[in-house]
Amino acid sequence: MVTAAYSYLGSSTLDDGLTLQTSGGAAAHPRFFTGFLTSPGAAATGLLAVAEVARTRYFRPLPPASLDPVVTAGSDRLRFESFSGCCGVYARMDVLPGGLDGEILAHGTTNVDVNLPLQRALTRVGRSDPMHVAVGPDDLTVTTFDGPLVERKVPLPSRWLRGFAEAQVLTARFDPRAEIGVAEARALFNRLPAGDRSVLWAVPAGRSLRFTSRPAPGAVCLPGAGRLAALKPFLRYATALRVYGPAVAAGSQPVASTWELSMPGLRLSVTLSPEPHRGFSGEGAVLESLATDEVADDADLISALLSWDPTIDVDELATASGLEAARVRDALTQLGTAGRVGYDVAEAGYFHRTLPYAAEAVERMNPRLAGARALITAGGVTLCDEVSLVVSGAETYHVRNESQSCTCPWWAKYRGGRGPCKHVLAVRMAAAGETAETIAKAEAAA
């Protein structure tokens, strides 16, 4: 059992999977949100897309996995999120203030199954059909012409926690790269080969995008065009396609990207891992932010300051906490490791969830971080001016301080593309002042 200092309506558990039971305030509310969605056909299609991603394994397809979107009621919007069964695709539908005709009664998060009866009912929702939604700590109730359908809370795969954190760190580095109209987007999607797993690069070309096999400045990576399939049904409602990604250059390796269809009141997006066979949960993007002595304490402080504004302002948190902006971002990464913070590329800002947070769970979900601390505790790190030495078992590895490269098999295979190896991480932590004594004190205080 993982516990945290929040007022929940029930207990949250972390066993083989995470079962959520959270509330954003001290009072018990039977519902986080109740009301109608103003674009019912689009919302129904978007929810089906999020559920479709959750049930799909894009790499090595297997029978359908779960259909368990995470639902968050914020101060003025609803968010529905999921990961694919292979954890390589992150989907989210944001129902913005203009898409809601109801009341946010409380802030909270839950996760529910989307079973076959609800799927069938959602497929029959038209543009002008009423669709009422009630989100509570134990269920999601959707009422259509078919009547009310209640989806109960289910366990959340613990692998999703790592996926949430990695996706947050990666997308925080994205910038808008292209925007095209829906007609051009429809033609673009029609050109994409179904089920394609190759890595393409999209380059703005007039009013549309053209695809190349090689990266170039300004390009956006499309790793596995077949993984955009869940977006296609939403094209009939969308008004624009926006694409986000990090800066790339000629010769860049594949990177993650976000593809977003939008309309007034709704946004539906999918974020793709750098390659179809790679899941977000193994990317290692969070490790650098977690490898400091003060990050856990900073996370506790920032957690206490988090508000339910639509986006979290890093500069305001820095002012309120007295921390530098870089430390605030590292603290948000720590919180993101337990899924309590996400990143919205459309608004270039972080947002708040209420998944339970416990600092001691971080290392269990990041074995390289635990391995680095074990190397320091065992006295296996020797810092030198140019090349540091790390003794791990019977092997001694050499870490170049300037390039942060290592002679271990992990580095030879990934060359930093999936985060630092435990030896590089141990050298960074030791250089920052972490010792066996500081680690022992931190463990004793936990």
From TrEMBL:
Residues 397-432 form the SWIM-type domain. Pfam families: SWIM (PF04434), WHD_DprA (PF17782). Coiled coil: none annotated. It comes from the Bacteria. GO terms for molecular function: zinc ion binding. This is SWIM zinc finger. Keywords: Metal-binding, Zinc, Zinc-finger.
